[in-house]
């Protein structure tokens, strides 16, 4: 469905954020993108959603194809029109608007005749939003805001959902719930590209995974196989976290990757 070939991106003149990244996302699959802070995960999502320019970045090589057609030169609206929706990091809901208004905004890209069905599907997926339709979005809990951010994107009935760190800053129970929702969304036929620092959650959900290291693709493959591999166990799943052979810098990175880093 999505084919990324030899993708390189930079911000300004000096920051090279992605270098020669290639991988495929098969139809209706979940692909996890793992990597530590600054590895280029958000840059990859921005490249796909066409929003890199809004952040002062640009593609310098490679291309992105959706169903065999290049989308890397399209503007963000044209990419949304192709049913590719991004949920950016940090649950950016419209804080002063109600839950209902947020959902309505998400449905603007959907044909008017399909909006009611999309809304019903979102409320079935997130019953808690249905109980809070009149509430100001900014007053929802962190987990509820994340659900609203995903629900708003689902109002566009995406074929491909780009999720940037949906578990960030949430309590374990809420992370579990978000994981269930992602699986359910995928079960209904939407492909998901899931950027996560919570490697354990991502590898459990995903069919395939790629690992970015300082802008380059370090590993790619079947998620279950990667989860079982020694490298991924050691670097991303906490196996031998304190191993003597791990350099201090690497341990620092592992901790950040696992979300247990405290400065
Ligand atoms: N808007 C920007 N302007 C300049 N440099 C940027 C910008 N956004 C990201 N970068 C730089 O690009 C590189 C990749 O960053 P990116 O945000 O894609 O990484 P990430 O893997 O998503 O990290 P994190 O988990 O911290 O969000 C980093 O060196 C980062 O400092």
From TrEMBL:
<dbReference type="GO" id="GO:0015807">
    <property type="term" value="P:L-amino acid transport"/>
</dbReference>
<dbReference type="InterPro" id="IPR003439">
    <property type="entry name" value="ABC_transporter-like_ATP-bd"/>
</dbReference>
<keyword id="KW-0067">ATP-binding</keyword>
<dbReference type="InterPro" id="IPR017871">
    <property type="entry name" value="ABC_transporter-like_CS"/>
</dbReference>
<dbReference type="InterPro" id="IPR003593">
    <property type="entry name" value="AAA+_ATPase"/>
</dbReference>
<comment type="similarity">
    <text>Belongs to the ABC transporter superfamily.</text>
</comment>
<protein>
    <submittedName>
        <fullName>ABC transporter ATP-binding protein</fullName>
    </submittedName>
</protein>
<dbReference type="GO" id="GO:0016887">
    <property type="term" value="F:ATP hydrolysis activity"/>
</dbReference>
<keyword id="KW-0547">Nucleotide-binding</keyword>
<keyword id="KW-0813">Transport</keyword>
<dbReference type="GO" id="GO:0015658">
    <property type="term" value="F:branched-chain amino acid transmembrane transporter activity"/>
</dbReference>
<keyword id="KW-0029">Amino-acid transport</keyword>
<dbReference type="GO" id="GO:0005524">
    <property type="term" value="F:ATP binding"/>
</dbReference>
<dbReference type="InterPro" id="IPR052156">
    <property type="entry name" value="BCAA_Transport_ATP-bd_LivF"/>
</dbReference>
<feature type="domain" description="ABC transporter">
    <location>
        <begin position="2"/>
        <end position="239"/>
    </location>
</feature>
<dbReference type="InterPro" id="IPR027417">
    <property type="entry name" value="P-loop_NTPase"/>
</dbReference>
<dbReference type="Pfam" id="PF00005">
    <property type="entry name" value="ABC_tran"/>
</dbReference>
């Amino acid at each position: 469905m999505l084919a990324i070939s030899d993708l390189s991106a930079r911000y300004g003149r000096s920051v090279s954020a992605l270098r020669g990244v290639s991988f495929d996302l098969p139809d209706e699959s979940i692909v996890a993108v793992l990597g530590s802070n600054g590895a280029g995960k958000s840059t990859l999502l921005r490249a796909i959603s066409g929003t890199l320019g809004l952040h002062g970045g640009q593609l310098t090589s490679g291309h992105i194809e959706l169903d065999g057609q290049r989308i890397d030169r399209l503007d963000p609206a044209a990419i949304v029109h192709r049913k590719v929706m991004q949920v950016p990091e940090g649950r950016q809901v419209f804080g002063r608007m109600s839950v209902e208004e947020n959902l309505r905004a998400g449905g603007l890209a959907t044909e008017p005749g399909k909006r009611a069905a999309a809304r019903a599907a979102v409320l079935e997926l997130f019953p808690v939003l249905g109980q809070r339709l009149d509430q100001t979005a900014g007053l929802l809990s962190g987990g509820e805001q994340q659900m609203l951010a995903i629900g708003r994107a689902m109002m566009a009935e995406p074929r491909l959902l780009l999720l940037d760190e949906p578990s960030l800053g949430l309590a374990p129970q809420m992370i579990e719930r978000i994981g269930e929702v992602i699986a359910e969304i995928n079960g209904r036929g939407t492909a998901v590209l899931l950027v996560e620092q919570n490697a354990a959650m991502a590898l459990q959900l995903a069919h395939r995974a790629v690992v970015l290291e300082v802008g380059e693709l370090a590993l790619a493959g079947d998620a279950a196989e990667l989860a079982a591999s020694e490298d991924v166990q050691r670097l991303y799943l906490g196996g031998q976290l304190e191993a003597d052979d791990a350099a201090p810098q690497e341990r620092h990175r592992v901790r950040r990757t696992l979300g247990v880093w405290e400065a």
